[in-house]
Each structure stands twice: as C-alpha cells, then as structure tokens.
Amino acid sequence: MTASAAPNTSAPKEKILKAAARLFAERGYHGIGIEDLCRALGVSRGALYHHIRSKEDLLEDICMRYMADLGEKARLAAAEEPDPVRRLERLGSELIDVIAASRAELAVCFRETHALGAERRKRVLALHAAYENVWKETLLEGQRAGVFLPFSRARLKALLGMHYYSYLWLDPSRPGCVDDAREVFRGIVKAATITG
Q1: Among candidates 47, 74, 7, 162, which has minimal Cα distance to 21?
Q2: What is the pLDDT of residues 142-182, one digit of tens each?
Q3: PANTHER family from the xrefs (predicted)?
Q4: Spatial CB neighbours of 31, under 8 Å, sequence gap ≥ 6
Q5: Structural domains of the chain in order of their starting residue, each with its CATH number
Q6: When you count CB atoms within 10 A of the terminal residue's CB, does the N or C end of the chain come out lower?
Q7: CB 70 within 8 A of CB 131
C-alpha cells in the first residue's frame, strides 16, 4: 500500500504506524519506548507485539512506505511528463502534497533513518537515492534541452532540501499554506531555468 492510498485507519497496524510516527516525530525515535506506544494506543505490550515485531520494524516500515510512495510518484512523473521544467514542478508539488498529508511520517523519514541498523538503513537510503535520482535526471535533461543551468549537485541538494525541510513549518491546517508553498517553490524552480 502507498501513502497516497487511503489507509484503512481501523486496521490495528495502521493505527500503530500512525501513533508511532507521531511519537517519533514529536520526541525522536530514541525518546520513545514500547511502553509509550502502548499508552498512546491504550493497549497492552502483548497486544502490541501481536501486530509488530519490534520498534525498529515500525521505524523501517514508516520510512520504507513513504519513500517507496515518493519513488513511485517520481517514476510516474518521469514517464508521463517529457518537459523537464513541468516535471520538476510536478515532482516538487507532489512532494509538498505528501509532506502535507503525512507530516509526522515524513519528519520521521527525513530525521530518524540514522537510528536504523546498517542493513535496514541501507534499504531506506537506496529508496532515497532512487527518488533523488529522478530529480537529478530531470535537471540533466533540462540542461541538455537548454532550459536549466549546468547540473550542480549543490543545486540538486538545495532544491530537495527546501522541499524536504518544509515538514518543519508546513501547516496544512492553515488555509492556503500548502498552496502558497507550492507557488513559492514553483517560482524558485522557474528562477533556476535559463529562460526564467
């Protein structure tokens, strides 16, 4: 299941993932214990372990789910949008939408991956790299088409960073906040084009 699909929030695993993401985002992965999760969910330790294997599994599930969803959106954008400027705008807009819809989960994806063991972290970082590669290829295509400045890794990281870290301030409950963010970021992308 992807993050864009409507999760079955009545399913115990979905409720557990939502609660874990909220707590990990608020207090950090290492600041939350199994007892904290049990209290937040109103269940016993045994009931919780009926649905999960470990706290680290929860962290990996959150990170894998949302990065896989972003990766699938990026692959679709690359397949469906041949114009690199419009594709970059679409990538940015979809990333903002996912962050706005799942702010706690994306905060966890961006901040807590380091807490995973080496093999788990490697799997999550591979998804991050595949996602970022679509952005990179889009910038390179735009360079070859003469619409983007020569590729720069720093520019790629700056573009991704401004989108990723919007989880810190993006407030979907504030009217117009998500639309404003999309417009501002779209303007920054447009300013990075040779044609302006």
Answers
A1: 7
A2: 999 999 989 999 989 999 999 999 999 999 999 999 999 99
A3: HTH-TYPE TRANSCRIPTIONAL REGULATOR ACRR, HTH-TYPE TRANSCRIPTIONAL REGULATOR RUTR
A4: none
A5: 55-191 (1.10.357.10)
A6: C
A7: yes
